[in-house]
Amino acid sequence: MDPQIQGAVLGAGATALGGAIAWVGARAQAGAALESVRMQVRGQQFDARWQMRRDAYAAFFGAVEEVRTAVADARGIQVVRLQHPDQTLGGTAPEARMAVAEVMKRLWFQQSLLRLSVSSLERMATDSLVEQVTGLVRYLDEWWEVALQNSLLADELDERLRSRSGELVEVIEHVMESARGWLDANPDVDPPGRRQVVPIACLISRSPPT
User: Which of 160, 165, 167 has the alpha carbon at shortest distance from 143?
Assistant: First the structure.
């Protein structure tokens, strides 16, 4: 073969090989860049979901505390009314009970929002907490009715109401601690099932009156 032609063929082959290597390298770089973008998007999605769950938990626990505070306020106002019927400051007992009903509605609303953002295990814990809060309101109503009748059971039911309110604080702390653990865990590789969850019923000594 003519040396010039041979050189031209070799040069063309080298150019083609170099182009192929460059194409492979560019494709590898593009693949790495695409994977980097995918990881970034997944990270952003994880961060957004984590923030959504955190906000939902914060609103939920805020609503729980609103109910507990409203129950305490309603009890206090009713006690004052029973001891001082002519008292005109601080609102009426029916208004205080209505306030409890309103904050309970907010709690149920926040519970529904939270249920959209968390796992089934988390829903079990928060739903159980809502049941305990609802039980506290039932204690309030039971005491309220008996107190208006000047029944001898009023003092006993009042003690139960205040005791349940104190127990509820422990339950709230327990569920909040579990929530912090779930928020800290990576749901893809660190399922919350690994954490030991104490049943909320074990933290309550008595059931609401029927």
Answer: 160
Quickly list DSSP for 44-76: HHHHHHHHHHHHHHHHHHHHHHHHHHHHHHHHH
Tell me which of 46 and 97 has the higher pLDDT: 97
In a domain? residue 46: no
The answer as to whether 50 is a domain residue is no
Range among 43-52, 87-96, 132-141, 147-156 rated most confident: 132-141
Entry pTM: 0.69
Burial of residue 37, with CB atoms counted within 10 A of its CB: 0-12 exposed, 13-18 middle, 19 or more buried: exposed
pLDDT recorded at residue 30: 61
Q: For residue 191, name the pLDDT band (cuts at 50, 70, 90).
A: very low
CA distance linking residue 54 with residue 1, whole number of Å:
77
Domain assignment of residue 166, given as a range: 55-203
Overall number of domains in the chain: 1
**Does any domain span residue 4?**
no
pLDDT tens by residue, 134-158: 999 999 999 988 888 877 788 889 9
CATH of the domain at 87: 1.20.1440
| Residue 90 domain flag | yes
